[in-house]
Fold:
Amino acid sequence: GVPGQHRIERVAGRAALGTGSPALVGMGTQQVTFSELAELTSRVVRQLAEAGVRTEHRVGLLVPPGMPGGQLVVALASSTTLVPINPALKPQEVIDLAIVTGLHAIVIPRWLETEARSAMLQRRVTVLEAVRTPDGTLGLELLTAPAGSPAPGTA
Structure:
């Protein structure tokens, strides 16, 4: 089987029991159901695979505050070895952490203002942006060449 598949199946199984059951609860009335979380996890798994990221790879996430951060943590931890990263770190600190932990890829939310994005784009690390689609769901967009491909401009 696919490494990590049991974690994905557990979220999906819980979603099948009751699509309206809250999986994550935030401030006020913010909540994400198990069904929504299962859909996000499946989408993230597909988008990571398209970027050449496999379940055994270490993936960093500059964790944004709030519900989107929680959703991304669960989706990525269900499908990779997640390395949460404080978005307040300086770009060189993020680079150092990427080297020490052996990151294969990093996810940086598009709405997060950080100089770490351009610093990581200059490295041979797959960089993906977490984005909100027009319907409000989260997804990932590849900013660099897929893992295992020559970096842009080096071929």
About this structure: The longest strand covers residues 126-132. Residues 150-155 have pLDDT under 50 and may be disordered.
